[in-house]
Amino acid sequence: MPVGTVASVKGVPQDVLEELGVQILLNNTYHLYLRPGVDTVRKLGGVQKFMSWNKPILTDSGGFQVFSLSELRKINEDGVQFRSHLDGSLHFFSPENSIAAEIGLGADIIMAFDECTEFPAEHERTRKSMEMTLRWARRSRDYWHAHKHETPWYDEKTRQMGSPQYQALFGIVQGGMYADLRRESAERTVEIDFPGYAIGGLSVGEPREKTWEMVEATIPLLPKDKPRYVMGVGTPEEIVEYVRLGVDMMDCVLPTRAARHGLLFTSEGKVNIKNARHARDEAPLDPKCGCKVCARYSRAYLRHLYAANEVLAQVLNTVHNLAYYLDTMRRVRQAIQLGEFASSRSAV
Amino acid sequence: MPVGTVASVKGVPQDVLEELGVQILLNNTYHLYLRPGVDTVRKLGGVQKFMSWNKPILTDSGGFQVFSLSELRKINEDGVQFRSHLDGSLHFFSPENSIAAEIGLGADIIMAFDECTEFPAEHERTRKSMEMTLRWARRSRDYWHAHKHETPWYDEKTRQMGSPQYQALFGIVQGGMYADLRRESAERTVEIDFPGYAIGGLSVGEPREKTWEMVEATIPLLPKDKPRYVMGVGTPEEIVEYVRLGVDMMDCVLPTRAARHGLLFTSEGKVNIKNARHARDEAPLDPKCGCKVCARYSRAYLRHLYAANEVLAQVLNTVHNLAYYLDTMRRVRQAIQLGEFASSRSAV
Fold first, then answer.
1. What's the pTM value of the predicted model, to 2 decimals?
2. What is the pLDDT of residues A16-75, one digit of tens each?
3. B264: closest CA among B274, B273, B277?
4. A262 and A238 housed in the same domain
5. Residues B331 and B230 reside in one and the same domain
6. Cβ distance A28 to A8 under 8 Å?
7. Above pLDDT 90, what percent of chain B?
8. Is the same domain home to A34 and A136?
9. Range of the domain at A311
10. Which one of B15, B301, B312 has the shortest CB-CB distance to A11?
């Protein structure tokens, strides 16, 4: 899932996302809550109508975003008090009003409100945090259940489809870097019963083997017949390996953020486009890539745009990196369909 | 002609420019000379190949750009010494090496090196400046004539077409805000004999009626059967009126620069998209516009992108403003073809 923080994948128009074959986007509740505000998005029909994107959208709960404002937040059992990074104004997210925001934004998939445990953290501290996330998961589920009719589009979609149409609320497994806590969190989150499950609290500064170990410990305890989503990962090589572990969904700012810094993923490895050695290189960025950037522009031109600080650099780099990620996942899906994925690394 | 200063119309990929029906782009010699440098562009086959744009490109001579660096330049008969706005390094443009740069960049239409007279300026000072521009026009023409085979693509295009292929070097009329000097400059520039003529030194701070008066004084003295180009104008209303005076070509940063500041041209007048009254407006920016921005997005979304400082704001705003300008000129051409243009203001 490409990340479209404030209802835009930075620099890429929606028709280009469609051409790229994007199937689902992530929007951040924290950012949309602050700007343009939940009421505005609700009034405009929800995030899909707002940004004119006719495929699914997932919103996070704001938990992770608020967690990353470490200077500006205060957590207790009730929820999290935080200050806006925009104007310093004071706000409060609880499981209830975070889910209310997600209902108001009206994405297709919404996430329970969780505490993302900091790294590093002691076992005892991590257990307490995990326990609170479980209590918050129940509160999220209960609030959602009582208010699930309140999406901006409930009446319209329900009439269209002839049956009640709701968002899917996913639970989030926590447990820090402790496999026993991850397993316990998974089992107890599954007991609450969600239509999909995410593994959260990863990519918070731990070594990559730890991330891997935690996913490996958790995945077998999540139902195979429901979507299993690892939040905030990874590199192109890693996402393939996560699929091998049984992961169905991932989101990551890496392709889009790296693009803005001139770091491009290619079949021949990472390319730093600002490097002077590309200045007169007439070759495409990636000769094996079929995206419209590789089909049309030279490395020399992309390097020039980046060096000259042109906005088009960001646009084209982002389009390419997304194409690279989406192609990777397309090959994974094909290999799975052909029954070749589990047996062969080279299939993708 | 949309302005693509450093071989990019800020934020808009070339395939979108094609969709918009852009027929010709302007690139700035001064900027490309500094970055990526003429040698690099030459090595890569010239500006068209460099930016992968298969329609005509026009480069200015750098004269106007250097003129706008008033703090950093020193002018004498030989040429202009100036400092780079990027790193303060010292450079020198003369008619000869400016044309050498334009030959190296290899655009389809190139401009003679001129002095853009400052505003306001006395009659005597303006005459002297105009006289120097005339001498520089001859030197530009002479240098071009001796070196016109040296474009990056001369051999290839000449072979392809079966006859020698050269750039078209246009002369530039100066004369400040004095109709008598404009007329004299026009007559004497035409005597030198160029395949096209521009009116330069306008839009330098003078009242708009003055601009109009100068164009009106000059146009009748420029051959009707050659392109007549007014540099650096104007608003959508003005460009229609310039055509009425006999102008064939114009360039202006207004549509692209205004877009970056959230100022959008519509059939109902100018719209300042950052205005809070658009925050919940589901209507398209311009209901009469057929561009892909107006076809897909609401004012509310465009306003949100602008307020949130999203790069997509610049991309979409620029696409719309270019569409508006290009549609305006398309209607002008249709009206001319139907013989309705001269007779009726309402035809466009």
1. 0.97
2. 999 999 999 999 999 999 999 999 999 999 999 999 999 999 999 988 888 887 677 889
3. B273
4. no
5. no
6. no
7. 93
8. yes
9. 258-347
10. B312
